[in-house]
Fold this protein.
Amino acid sequence: MLPPHHALATAILAVPLWRRGWPLTRIGALFTGGVLIDVDHYLSYVWHSGDLSIVRAFRFHRSAYRSPFSGRLHPRWPRMGIDRFREFHSVPAIAAVFAASFLAGRWRSVVCALAWGMVSHRILDEVAGWIHPPPADNV
């Protein structure tokens, strides 16, 4: 999924939480975990290309993305092995953020909201990958 899709999904998730009385700091942490966690895509682009342009990085990742509305859906069972980089970095990161929430004192609810945003992001990416796998997964 692309950042605009994550932003929309996180906004949909945030509305009922905001109506339940979540403060803006927790909503902001939810958005940080749900959307801005994709900064690793930009850093990967910079690392491999040496180009610092955010616009070109977005175009690069956009060109690799295939829309689920393109008519080329290929549902498949997700692979259970941890052989992809995203599980390597996201699962321990999410676990670490949840663990840090217990040490955060008065910031516990904010750190926990950050972790829930990261979890929702991961779930969305996995569902999107299951419904429409990227080209590398079509082997």
Summary: Helices lie at 3-19, 24-34, 39-49, 54-64, 85-103, 108-131. Residues 90 and 105 are 24 Å apart (CA to CA). The chain has one domain: 3-67+83-134.
